[in-house]
Specification:
The structure is a homodimer of 482-residue chains. With 482 residues, chain A is an alpha/beta fold. Chain A has one domain: Rossmann fold. Helices cover 31% and strands 14% of the residues of chain A. Chain A has an 8-stranded mixed beta sheet with strand order 2-3-4-1-5-6-7-8, sandwiched between helices. In chain A, strand 9 and strand 10 form a beta hairpin. The N terminus and C terminus of chain A are likely disordered.
Chain lengths: 482, 482
């Protein structure tokens, strides 16, 4: 335990989500071994049909926001007065977690913190989930935008725009990923010719905390991990290299100042699987760096050898899994093997992702705010996860009555909330898709604020700044506090 | 011809559209005789399959805004510089149509005005179309709103909110319709218990022009025409009675002042069919009132007897029909016959709606801005009609190069514009579906501005005002100019 509270822990976190919600599923499935299943003579009936219905339903539901509601048979009664609830701050008071931070980040494999769930750990999990959610909420998936596939905001206003500056972090670098040749439909692409980038998508960010006794760093990413191409603007280095470069840079800075540094990587769905790859690489690249992974609804990743290696190098993994979510039951991407070679693996592998680290297993049925019934997409959404985590006390308790997180967030991209709450389904949308009526009476798309236009050069400048900072901790501090 | 330009023509117009766009088709079809077709032993193959695909496609397209584009084979080149076009006022200069108003409103059955299309008539058609469009754009179809099914704005700000106050009209009365027992799914209903009305939907408006040498009145309606119920708040009188009462009231006022009055009724789709019923009733109720109907994409209505009677009483009808739109080819509702009795008619009737008055037949292929290919919904949308009308010169001409109407409007509820224009499909949407983040960090639906809350009492007050006005033209003038 770290008893000296004045020690500054620089905690690096990677918030990884793989796609904006509106398109993630078809492409997530494209990466699964399901396609190979199809060529097998004896596919496993049960898993195939589940997968097919998932694919089918998700695809349909993605494009057809459910208008008809599943009839509520529950005798759920409104548990609060609307106005009272609406006038309650959505944030809880924050405790100083510095004394317990190593344990909260997995030093003891979360053994004694999960059931009942320690309130400090709950808050940390929600925070990391909100970092992963940020990559969905800020992603520009307007195919008529010349910035399609980028982040809608520049680094220094991302958290503010998304209302998560409360966590006290600041983005230090954006990470970009390029299309993998095997999965050509992976990226979000603009329909128009001249775009900010033809090859890359925004993938996430590296961030570090401000004004806290125990500042931390965060890294987030979205998509495929190892591709690069000299001819591109954003992927002369791969996403993997970008993350590692930035993490190494920050670790060096903080270690050079005699401070403790740790890295937590977080991600949702495929992003959760990628977080594990990132952790593996970071552990092999940077010796003696405490690394933890907190994933949400991630599919299974890797084989037994990979599991053993992760364990050996000390990567701590906490998988948050919703009982109703089928994605964590699906085989995920396989590390170090090309997709073509997947055939060799299937059948011989026991999928073992669940054995890497700890699992926080939650039941959506514990929440009185959520509809019952089958909603495969809804039960996989990250906001649904965060809502259930927020109310979780222990496996033997009901949803906690003093949960503070805004329940309305659940319905951002789906239709999961009971009607009594009167929150429209899929409500997270831009007014007129960004069109505005100009002085001449014409509906036009305003030019993006130059500050928010992606630029590999500007990223480079930020980076160079960072390197200069190594020579001057004071100047670095001032950069962080801008 | 009216040579005395100081004569004031009070022109009453009924802008009728039947439903908000997002839900109109399944319910429109529910009113068609198609269901009766089904019970026939020998349905007409071609029309049935067309209808089935329409129903199927429309239903799907309604709920699944098309993301994939039909590949453009056209060699269409961008015909204008974007910025230049965006800086061109969307309005053309207005001429004084007073000398020609009788002819423009059908006194000569539009014989010499359609091909080539007289520019003044084009402008009148677009104006009436925009009145009909207003009932779509302002309709509250949020099923979680307690005002679901009402107009989102009160009478005195409807046109301003929709950007059509340029036409110089002022709403004098809103019209409400109630659910027809035979078509229980007709109305838009709120999912929540306490609502502004359980039985009625906003249906349209009566309006009159301001500050013009030749002011006119407008009436608009949306839905079923003749139902009423003493127990309801909004339909103690039927929509039909509400319209007639208001029209009669205004006609009396203007006639009492020695002024000329005329009535034009306009509507889109089923609203166009209902406009004809309204015209029939008005002609039989108010003697010597010149009445014209301008409909857009309306299905066929009525039988030979109805046609003959309309003709005899002097109702002038101009049907605007898009060649690619299948709805005008479909049989519509039958006047004076219950839906159950429809069986008696089918087969013995020659559908003759096209013989009532004149037809302005347009080809969407004339517009270089519209996608080719099959888009049944898109070709039926009122905004598509208005776009094609705006560019129509004659059957032998191409789309006029000096058309001023904003092309972007076409994509409000569909995906009809070529990619080069960069206008997102289905872009007409509210920011976060009306939710706002309050000071406590919670997403809530703000209470509707009390001014915009529907109230049968307030409507009554407006009405009473109107009656008092009969005794004082000056006071009436001041009401109009408020």
């Amino acid at each position: 335990m770290d008893a000296i509270s004045s020690t500054i822990h620089h905690h690096i976190t990677a918030a990884a989500a793989h796609r904006p919600a509106a398109n993630m599923f078809p492409k997530l499935l494209a990466l699964q071994p399901l396609a190979i299943h199809d060529s097998h003579s004896k596919p496993k009936k049960s898993s195939r049909s589940a997968v097919e219905s998932l694919s089918h339903l998700l695809h349909l539901r993605m494009e057809t926001p459910e208008q008809k509601l599943i009839v509520q048979q529950s005798n759920w009664n409104l548990q609060f007065d609307h106005d009272e609830k609406h006038n309650t701050p959505a944030m809880s008071p924050r405790e100083d977690v510095s004394d317990k931070w190593r344990e909260i980040h997995g030093s003891q494999d979360w053994e004694s913190l999960l059931n009942p769930l320690h309130p400090w750990l709950r808050r940390e999990i929600v925070k990391y989930g909100e970092f992963a959610q940020a990559t969905y909420d800020a992603f520009d998936f307007d195919s008529f935008s010349e910035y399609c596939g980028s982040c809608r905001y520049r680094e220094n206003r991302l958290f503010e725009k998304l209302g998560i500056s409360k966590h006290g972090y600041k983005v230090s670098k954006y990470i970009y990923a390029m299309s993998h040749m095997d999965v050509p439909q992976w990226l979000e692409r603009s329909r128009i010719a001249e775009t900010w980038s033809k090859d890359s998508n925004w993938m996430g960010f590296v961030a570090s905390p401000l004004f806290m006794e125990k500042p931390r760093l965060s890294v987030g990413f979205l998509s495929i991990y190892t591709s690069k191409c000299e001819a591109t603007r954003y992927n002369k280095s791969s996403a993997s290299e970008q993350v590692m470069e930035e993490v190494k840079r920050l670790v060096e800075i903080y270690k050079g100042r005699g401070e403790e540094v740790s890295l937590t990587i977080t991600g949702h769905s495929l992003g959760g699987a990628l977080a594990l790859l990132n952790a593996y690489e970071a552990a092999n690249t940077i010796p003696n760096l405490p690394i933890s992974v907190i994933s949400f609804g991630a599919p299974r990743v890797g084989n037994i050898a990979f599991r053993d290696e992760l364990h050996q190098i000390g990567v701590k993994t906490l998988r948050v899994v919703l009982k109703q979510d089928v994605v964590p039951r699906m085989p995920g991407i396989v590390f170090n093997e090309s997709l073509q070679k997947f055939d060799d693996f299937i059948g011989t592998l026991e999928w073992v992702y669940t054995h890497v680290g700890a699992e926080l297993r939650l039941d959506a049925g514990s929440s009185p705010y959520l509809k019952r019934g089958l909603n495969l997409l809804g039960f996989h959404m990250l906001e649904t996860y965060l809502h259930v985590v927020d109310g979780f006390l222990s496996t033997s308790s009901t949803y906690r009555s003093n949960a503070r997180r805004d329940v309305a967030l659940v319905n951002k991209y789906c239709d999961m909330l009971v009607d009594e709450l009167r929150i429209p389904p899929c409500w997270y949308q831009r007014e007129n898709k960004g069109l505005v009526c100009n002085a001449h009476g014409r509906w036009v798309k305003p030019r993006r604020d130059p500050e928010d236009i992606p630029s590999p050069t500007r990223d480079q400048e930020v980076h160079v700044h960072g390197i200069e900072m190594r020579e001057s901790c004071e100047r670095f501090e001032s950069l962080l506090s801008v």
